[in-house]
Amino acid sequence: MLKYIYLINFFKIYHDITIYHAILPIGYLMHYTSTKGLQIKNKSKSFKNNVFRCLLIFLLTMTLSCVVSSTENNLFLLRDSTSGQIGHVRNYAPPANDMNVLFGWNNENDNGINWSGWLWQQNVAYGNEGWVLGSKNLLGGPINTYFGQSPRSFDKSDYGDDNLVEITRNERSPSTSRGGALRIFDNPDNFTSPNQASWWMYYGARPLVEKGITSESTDRMSFYIKLKGLKPQGEKGSPDSLSTNFHIGTYLCWDKEQPAKNTGEGCPREGPGNQHYYHYFGFNPGAWIHTQVDDHPNHHRGKPGNRYHDNNPVKADGMSYFAQLMRFYFEIRIPQTEDTEFIVDELLFYSTREAIEPNQNDESITSLWVGYWPDNDYWEIGFKDGGKFGVGENKFSTFEIRWSTLPITNENYEQSNIVEPLFYSGTEYVGAENPHYVRRANDYKRDVWTRFTLPAQVVNDYQTIYFAVKDVSTKQKNKGTRWPWNRDDHGEAPSSYIRTIDYSLRPVN
């Protein structure tokens, strides 16, 4: 069905542009391939998906080339097909064919502590308040274990923090017009807490693959988040102005041949073995941020910091990271001077195997996020370099960022628009040959962050903006003129593929 959505969206976007007449025959061919092709016997699903993808990429590459030239002539303002009036362009394309929503808080009755299908309790576990699953029709229904009922969503209460929670209908992700969002915030009457809001978002006893939320190919968790109370970072443009201030902790489990019981070796506890991982982020407060968690964690419990961690760290066990995910929490990582909070919305999972561009760089571009600050009219993007090298002197990495009003693929990447970064870019950081490149803030750390702007007409008129990041690290190149960025890249980029993310400025539902 999403194949039709992709096609329909493109027709909507271009119905007032002469290019429509050029892409129409291709559209018919795509339609024929995805419908009549289904009736042809002995044709595998993967073959049909590949044919569809090839045609779609050809369409995207051709249209993107035309849109770039049209944009330069201010011809990109199109008619809203639903109202017939000049308005924002409905250019949203779903990121994948297999999106599964875990939490959206979109039921009309979701408000305060009322959450459809879930029961509020003052003592869910360990004296902490939260919800337990009440409906037999959700997530396979509730189950009882020796450590309480699951699944549940409840206060993590670490560091002496007194976390409060509500489903708020006053704020929601810019990508949706429905329901509410989950707000976690410090108790303003607790004057001794370190101001590190945290919450067990999902605390289960069985892997999510058994709940039909993830699959063996799932490699993305996606959500929108808005934070308050964090100390701003990055604006100094110095080697020490970036840090990790938010993290997601994950726990995996699977069954051994022998029952796990209370050994901690398998479901319903973690394991076998040490299966606790961390995904690191460096956010700024005050805006909705679209965040991707991939299957390449930034840390493994008990292991040295800043070292390399495998992409899908349980692959050697014959397992898939998100398939075996059974619980995870969100947490502000370091103490803050002000009360903190974060609001989460539209939390879902999908596989890039089912995406418009399935070949992506998850090796050196991990924990990717992008956000828009409308009050200041600027964007920020950040991620962690997860590449297989030891950080240290002469171990910098260099990246390029691009944007488009159409989904970006490896094939049409060069036709998309270059982002001009405002930080960690320019001759002082990356040299004169490609001054729009952006570099890590510090060759001893893995943080990448910058700020940028986009044309006002694009921000005002389009529903969704698409971004791609590419690792362009090259030995003996990209040296800046200022210390410490006059040092070398660590080596060649580990992947020639891009990494993609989008941001919806307006509701897509």
Description:
The protein is an alpha+beta fold and 509 residues long. It contains five helices and 24 strands. The strands form four sheets. Strands 1, 7, 8, 10, 13, 16, 17, 18 and 22 form a nine-stranded antiparallel β-sheet that branches. Strand 17 (366-373) and strand 18 form a beta hairpin. Helix 1 runs antiparallel to helix 2 (19-35) and helix 2 runs antiparallel to helix 3 (45-72). The longest helix is centred in the N-terminal third of the chain and has 28 residues, at 45-72. The chain crosses the membrane at residues 51-70. Keywords: Membrane, Transmembrane, Transmembrane helix.
Shape: globular
**Assembly category:** single chain
Strand content: 25-35%
Overall number of strands: 24
Q: Number of helix segments?
A: 5
Radius of gyration: 23 Å
- Category from helices, strands and their pairing: alpha+beta
Segments where pLDDT lies below 50 for 5+ residues? Answer: 1-5, 8-45, 66-86
Helical residues, percent: 10-25%
**First CA to last CA: what distance?**
16 Å
Major β-sheet, in short? Answer: 9 strands, antiparallel
- Can you give the mean pLDDT? 86
Secondary-structure element order, N to C: HHHEEEEEEEEEEEEEEEEEEEEHEEHEE
Keywords: Membrane, Transmembrane, Transmembrane helix
